[in-house]
Amino acid sequence: MSLEGTGKCHTVTLRRHAVMAAGKMAAPIEFAADLCIPRLFYISEMALFQQQHITWEDLPVPYRVVTGHVPLLVEELWRCRGADAGGAALERLCCWTGVAGSAEELSLTRLQQEEEQTVPPMRRRRRNRCVYTTPPVCCSICSDAKLKDPFSLAQKDLQNLYEEIKKLLVSKAELKVLCDYYFDGKGKAFRPMIVILMARACNVHSNKEGVLLPAQRSIAMISEMIHTASLVHDDVIDDSDTRRGKNTINKVWGERKAILAGDFILSAASMALARIGNNTVVSVLSQVIEDLVRGEFMQLGSKENENERFKHYLEKTFKKTASLIANSCKAVSILVNSDPEVHEIAYQYGRNVGIAFQLVDDILDFTSCANLLGKPSAADLKLGLATGPVLFACQQFPELHAMIMRRFSSDGDVDRAWQYVLKSDGVEQTNYLAQHYCQEAIRQISRLRPSTERDALIQLTELVLRRDK
Amino acid sequence: MAWRSRLSYIGWRHLSIFSNPSPSNWTKVVSDAEKIVGYPTSFMSLRCLLSDELSNVAMHVRKLVGTKHPLLNTARGFVYDSRNNLQMRGLIVLLMSKAAGPCPSTSDPIHDSMVSGIYPSQRNLAEITELIHTAFLVHRGIVNLKEWTNSDGPLKDMQFGNKMAVLSGDFLLANACTGLAQLNDTKVVELISSAIGDVVQGIYHESSTSAEEGSLTVASWEDQTFLSHGALLAKSCQAAMKLARHGNESQNLAFQYGKHLALGHKLNSDLHTFVKSGSEPAVFSLDSAPVVFHRQIVGPERWRHQLKQVQNMARQIDYTKLRGLIKTERGVSQALDLCSYHGNKALEAMKCFPPSEARSALENMACAVTKF
Question: Which domains are present in chain B?
Answer without folding.
Answer: 19-368 (1.10.600.10)
